[in-house]
Task: structure prediction
Amino acid sequence: MILQNYIYSVLLLTLTIIQSCAATPPAPAEPPRIKEINYEKNIAKNAHRVNIKNSNMGEMARTPVKEKEPKYFREPGVAAAGHYDGRFWLGFVSDEERKSSLKHLIRAWLQWTQSQGIETWLAHGTLLGWWWNNEILPWDTDLDVQVSEATLKTLAESFNLTTWSYNFEQENFQREYLLDINPYWVNRLRGTAANLIDGRWIDKSTGLFIDITGLSQTHGVTRPGVISCKNLHRYKIQEIYPLRDTRFENFKAFVPNSYEKILIKEYRSKAFTVTEFERHEWQPAPGEWVKKTTFQPHRLHRLKNGKFMKIKIEDPRGLEAVPQPTFWQNVWRVWHYW
Result:
């Protein structure tokens, strides 16, 4: 009787589980759509965005997103092309063009922000390049700047999707740059990490860009006096302010007040001492990073066993530098070839 009750209980439990699994799950919520924008409009057609704060994108930025955010900025989806904007990418540029484009990209950003009274400062690898010699690190493929949340709000509401012309006559360099603010900038928490970057200053000719991230006080109760970006870089307010006036790429720029403390926190102290990195080495005399030469001071000599050995070219012994076989190696060779 006890066994029959046990079997009946097991069958009843199994039937209940099957019925619960067969229930239809609720349909996933459809992510909000981003209004398609014609990014090729010139500044004249976008002038109303400069003067009208309540633009469509501004309204979207101020509206909290309750559902999952789709990724806004898109890269080309090609290996090693993660620092190109997918909308303007036409292929990889040469090292020389990349360096020149990035130099004028940051100059144009500094020139434009100062002309508009917008507060911004160098960050991350760009700040590290400034520490070494006031220039962009030669292996860098993108640039980073930061702004306050209040400044980010101004950029989103007053300057979003405007195109700005740049002309550097000394080098006959002309470009157009697009300021594009992520419509999900208003969500100051990390979320799903799909929209860590709040904005971009984009070179429309190459797709290279400056990442713009805003700093906000997101945990005022638990972390008073601490501001952070969506990528969890946290700073005390006194580490950022007051900003320091300096020069970068021969143009006026600003850096955080405690820049060394910030760099050590992000890259550790070795960032100030390592003099060889990414096939470059630091040369104190000219005060710049120099790319290592590909010259190899040795040649390969083929041994009788088929293996190769490196011999220094300047070694005066020549082939005498090749080690002679031992007694037992000679015995093995005699036995092998017998």
Summary: Residues 298-337 form one domain. Residues 21-65 have pLDDT under 50 and may be disordered. The longest strand covers residues 173-181. Residues 95-116 form the longest helix (22 residues).
